[in-house]
Amino acid sequence: TIGAAEALCVYRLPQVLLEYRKRYPLVDIRVQTESCKPLFGLIRSNSIDIAMALTQEIDEPDMDGRSLFNEKMIVVVSPSHPLALKKILRPADLSGECLILSPEGCGYRPIILAVLEKYDLKPSSIMELSSVGARKGCAICGLGVTILPKIAAKDELKQGKLVELNWQGPSFDVTIQVMWHREKWLSPIITAFLELCNTMEN
Description:
Layout: E1 2-4, H1 6-11, H2 13-23, E2 31-33, H3 36-44, E3 50-55, E4 63-71, E5 73-77, E6 98-101, H4 109-118, E7 125-128, H5 132-140, E8 145-149, H6 154-159, E9 163-164, E10 174-181, H7 188-197
């Protein structure tokens, strides 16, 4: 049983799961979508075997894990948004804008909030949406600015529905982390999955 962030379930896990199913067709795989923070509780209660999250680091003493690779985060808006005309986007440019963010518990939300605090930025409003698709949809409609894993916006960028802004501020990039309870026995079927995770394409 795997717990994973929605973006990973949609854009990173399917190919790994497909290959795993080919190699181990008798293993019953279950995937549960959750934001980062609740995953720790699910691991502790043994509701899931391992978790995958987008975050900078794991600061939980009873957790073990490994980093897979960095996930590039980008700032995007609708082509009709005024910021789309800017050649360079600086932190101060986010003041007075509507920010479309993930809710509390998401692994990369604290990174974004830390930048707002560092530069004393005051958005006009903050919309919180748990779904990556919903955040993209609101940005496409011109409702505001959102920050997403680049892989999650790949199709919309190609279709011209979203525009990547040239962000000149602290990096929002995160790392794909796979984690488990420090005292958990990693069975051969779990170990095999972890090994396949290392083949994820960056």
